[in-house]
Hints:
Elements: E1 2-4, H1 45-57, E2 88-89, E3 98-105, E4 110-120, E5 123-126, H2 136-139, E6 140-144, E7 159-161, E8 163-168, E9 182-186, E10 196-197, E11 211-216, E12 232-237, H3 241-248, E13 257-260, E14 282-285, E15 288-297, E16 307-311, H4 312-323, E17 337-341, E18 346-350, E19 361-365, E20 369-375, E21 384-389, E22 395-401, E23 406-413, E24 421-426, E25 435-439, E26 445-448, E27 460-461, E28 471-475, E29 488-492, E30 497-501, E31 515-519, E32 527-532, E33 541-545, E34 551-554, E35 569-572, E36 578-581
Parallel strand pairs: 10-15
Antiparallel strand pairs: 1-15, 2-12, 3-4, 3-6, 4-5, 5-9, 6-7, 8-9, 11-12, 11-14, 13-16, 14-15, 15-16, 17-18, 17-36, 18-19, 20-21, 21-22, 22-23, 24-25, 25-26, 26-27, 28-29, 29-30, 30-31, 32-33, 33-34, 34-35
Amino acid sequence: MRIGLPVAAAGVAAAVAAALLNASAGAATAAEPELKTPVLSTVSQAELQARVVGGLAGGDIAGQTTEKSSLSSSTSSGTVDPKIIGGTTTTISSAPWMAQLFYQDVANDERFFCGGAVVSPTKILTAAHCVKGYNWAKYGTIVTGTTTMPDANGNTNGTLRGAVRQWSHPSYSARTIDNDIAVLTLNEPVKATPIRMTTSTDTTSYKAGTSAKVYGWGRTSSTTEDVSDTLKTATLPIQSDATCAGYYGADFIKGHMVCAGNPASGSDAGTTSACNGDSGGPLVVGGRIVGVVSWGVVNCVEKGAYSVFSKVSTYLGAAYAQVDDANMSYTDNKADLFVRNASTKTGYEKDSKGTSFGARQDLGYWGAYNVVLQTDLNRDSVQDLIYRNSSTGAVYWDRYVWSTGEFSRKKIFDNWKTRTRIIAPGDLTGDYKPDLVSVDSAGKAWLYPSNGDGTFSTRKQIGTGSGWNSYNMVRGKGDFNGDGKADLLARNKSTGALYLYKGTGNASSPFSARVKVRTWSNTTYNAFDAIGDITGDGKADFLARTPGGTLYLYKGTGKATSEIFATRISVGTDFKQYDIFG
């Protein structure tokens, strides 16, 4: 028998009402666009603290549903012990990215605790069984920056935050605890130092015998429910897939799961293992997350048992799409669209409905600009805009400033008037900070590594060639081939050949050799846009407009071949009026 490792029951996911970049107050003759302050979901510290109290006192097991009841049962009738069996005490300074996740839904009598890891200022990586079926925006609190658990009254020296969005893997199964990975988006950034996930090509970290560290506030005993204040860690050797399957049989799914630890002894003595309350916490190798605490045996010490984790390398593409997520509506995990009317120069926001776009919302006058890009340079989950003044070539960054509650504009480049392309593809250097790319008049492409604050490190030429002006379209935002690295798409203006430049995550050589994925002539499409994951399925999508004005959505498949996109879907026939797509 196996059991999800946190401490809950079931709930219903819900969206949080919020609106970003809504109607501009500027008239059509205004010199500058006026971006309205986003309406962000707020929750009082008192309410967050109350949720902590309930989550701390609860004895439920997260993810325990009717579907899953045959595979797990609560090991507690009261407070769950937040410790690791066989571990040692550590501090938050050694693991500054650790997060405590508390959930309390009084109406449905659901109270539990899970762990998680800060992977960007507003993103928490955790387990799907801690998220799926629950309404974290309404009932959850995330605590960061503390070694100790809160006291019985919810007092803590950590930072309390609510959640505004939640994502769990669309193929998560409560019955098999497969695809057990999720991301929570916080209602405000935290200062905790993020930890990165491993790469999709990482095999070294998963070799049998590799030492990994698990962190958490989960149980330290199979026989007691005593609560410990402190963060614990334990070193576990990675086990081979054959070893894991040898013990768990078909319950262990190769490629989706990894197990670690020496075989449990049958009692606390001689056992080192993750346990209830550790769910969602990280398994770390070489300073990167390679696993997320997922499941194990009841009481965690059954003779011969191992701790089981979700294999992060397998899920990197889907999970990183959520880390990279920042949409204009701020209400979901779907990328929204900026467009500008060619005659009036009015900018509009069109929110994604998954396979269509909603009614446009006025963003004011954008006549002074000839490039507008959507990105999130500072990774705070509020959509930023980067735009270039057509007269001066100055490039500006508009971002939300949390301390003032308003948008602020910052000039980030001077005299980019002759740049033929400016692209905001996402993180190209592997540091989780979105970067910029520009192409100069000579056809050379340049990478500008972002520092995450509107400044950039020294630019680096991409390759040694100068043929980037042979393309009449270069676009990118997100990961098109599912490896968790930002890519670019470029169309040759003579042949119509569409090429994928796969990101490497390496600043010195940010793209591998191009791969031809389609042929789209100029008479087929004359405008394009890449704004990220429009459908919310964890894959980057693409938009292409016909000369007649029909805009097609090409849903990403995650394949770096001619099958890179699914069959196109029309999302409107009136897009001929727009001359700028964000």
